[in-house]
UniProtKB/TrEMBL annotation:
Keywords: Amino-acid transport, ATP-binding, Nucleotide-binding, Transport. Pfam families: ABC_tran. Coiled coil: none annotated. The gene is urtE. It comes from the Bacteria. Residues 2-230 form the ABC transporter domain. InterPro entries: AAA+_ATPase, ABC_transporter-like_ATP-bd, ABC_transptr_urea_ATP-bd_UrtE, BCAA_Transport_ATP-bd_LivF, P-loop_NTPase. The keyword Nucleotide-binding applies. This is Urea ABC transporter ATP-binding subunit UrtE. GO terms for molecular function: ATP binding.
Amino acid sequence: MLELVDIRAGYGRTEVIHGVSLLVPSDGVAAVMGHNGAGKTTLLRAAVGLIKPTRGKVLLNGEDITGLRPSARVARGLAYVPQGQQSFGQLTTAENLRVVADGRKRGKALIAEALDLFPALTTLLDRRAGLLSGGQRQQLAIARALITEPKILILDEPTEGIQPNVVAEIERTVMELTERGDLGVLLVEQHIGFALQSAQHYSILAAGHVTSTGEGGTTSTDAVRRAMAI
Ligand SMILES: Nc1ncnc2c1ncn2[C@@H]1O[C@H](COP(=O)(O)OP(=O)(O)O)[C@@H](O)[C@H]1O
Ligand SMILES: [Mg+2]
């Protein structure tokens, strides 16, 4: 379980996140929705240690990790897939996976498992990541994150700018992953239908505050749109 407790964070003297708390279960999805500029990415950066919160705590399975560097958080089971489908463009798909898998005891098996989840990548192993489509790069980025054997996977807008058939595939994979029961996902998503379908719990972030929360399965996309309009 990942807990964000009353986080305040921002850039320089500008506070962007004004006291946000949320909980990501060990075996389910918590979604964060909100308009562009609401502070979603900033909140995730604070959670993974790329920026230092000015107040509040980050707890991973009860351990206070607020003071840890990003690499130490990865070692404890926090994986982060940033917005914008990033990978090493000059490296091939296979090399991108190996960079993460090398030095891990189960490295080879982990790559095989990741390719099982994203079969589309198996035909692209020798292609440079920079030449993949947005959807393929997103799948590669999630595959890389999974090779670190996370307890909590943090996804920042995984379906942004991706064609609908790949969106469906990413949705299916996220649901499949959490159904196994050993992974929690913090999903930032503007695709409300996907967020509600996969998340047990959601929060709406507006101007750095959580303005509304609810249960995924029982809420309509219209209700979320209305809540986001306030
Ligand atoms: N590196 C940065 N330096 C200064 N301000 C930033 C930086 N990144 C984002 N911001 C500002 O923080 C606010 C929230 O941005 P962001 O967290 O990216 O929102 P979201 O992910 O919800 O679109 C915006 O006003 C944005 O301009
Ligand atoms: Mg963002």
